[in-house]
Design a protein that fits this description.
Strand order of the largest sheet: 1-2
Subcellular location: Membrane
Number of domains: 2
Protein name: Energy-coupling factor transporter transmembrane protein EcfT
Number of strands: 2
Main location: membrane
Order of helices and strands: HHHHEEHHHHH
Largest sheet: 2 strands, antiparallel
Organism: Microbacterium hydrocarbonoxydans
Keywords: Cell membrane, Membrane, Transmembrane, Transmembrane helix
Distance between the termini: 48 Å
Length: about 260
């Protein structure tokens, strides 16, 4: 559901209204420890523990599968690549030229596939519910990042959505002039250059307008919306800390834990 006043997508999940900074911190806290481990146990336990977060994020079934479709394709593809070309160890089941499938490559492939899902799913789901303006407010007011950098990045992100419309308008304009019927590669390169020039012009105009409105000032600025941090935001961060700790503990307890830098 879209709010007609703010043009924001309203979601009913308990995690959806949480602070944007809390969601960013939760995604990082889950991802970083799992990146350092490369075993199937820790990734599997983390993925199971992440299920409540995914369900409480407020995404509908269709939106969830649409947003995470790339991960469901990338995970098995990465597993196949590791299984065929990973470092061999143990019994070799198949070998042909550069391809060598062994027990070690198969276990590493399974760990890689599960790890892609364990790291990617919470990151995608949590970031889908983050509004860029809320994130900019949190980064500037709580992390104390330079306001000029934060506002400039926010303005750039807002302009990204216009690129698709500009590309469509350029294609229709060229077709109306009769220059879009042949030479597909040449046409694409020409449109890409035109889009690049248009983006530079729009960025220059935006920068001038922002400077004229005092966004480049060195003094302390005010904010239209105050960044709010509640106990529930702290709870989300704590839950994100518990997930990798329990996952790595389970892997260590079963003797399956493998530090990625430790070979």
């Amino acid at each position: 559901m879209i709010d007609p006043l703010t043009a924001r997508v309203e979601r009913r999940g308990p995690i959806a209204p949480r602070s944007a900074l809390a969601k960013l911190a939760a995604a990082l806290l889950i991802a970083v420890p799992l990146i350092a481990s490369i075993d199937v146990v820790s990734a599997s336990v983390a993925l199971i523990l992440e299920i409540p977060l995914l369900l409480l994020a407020g995404l509908g079934a269709r939106e969830f599968w649409t947003r995470t479709a790339v991960l469901w394709v990338a995970a098995p593809l990465s597993a196949v690549t590791i299984a065929l070309y990973g470092a061999p160890s143990g019994a070799v089941h198949f070998e042909w030229m550069l391809i060598r499938v062994s027990d070690g490559s198969l276990s590493l492939a399974a760990a890689t596939a599960v790890r892609v899902l364990a790291i990617g799913l919470p990151s995608v789901v949590l970031f889908v519910t983050v509004d860029p303006t809320d994130l900019a407010d949190d980064l500037a007011q709580r992390v104390r990042l330079p306001a000029r950098f934060v506002i400039g990045a926010l303005a750039g992100m807002r302009m990204l959505g216009l690129l698709a419309d500009d590309w469509r308008a350029l294609a229709l304009a060229r077709r109306a002039r009769g220059v879009a019927d042949q030479g597909r590669i040449r046409r694409t390169l020409g449109m890409a250059f035109a889009l690049f020039v248009l983006a530079i012009r729009r960025g220059s105009s935006l920068a001038t307008a922002m400077e004229a409105r005092g966004f480049g000032g060195s003094g302390e600025r005010s904010w239209a919306r105050e960044s709010v941090w509640t106990r529930r935001d702290t709870g989300l961060v704590l839950v994100a800390c518990v997930i990798p700790v329990v996952a790595i503990w389970a892997a260590v307890a079963t003797g399956a834990w493998n530090f990625v830098l430790g070979g």
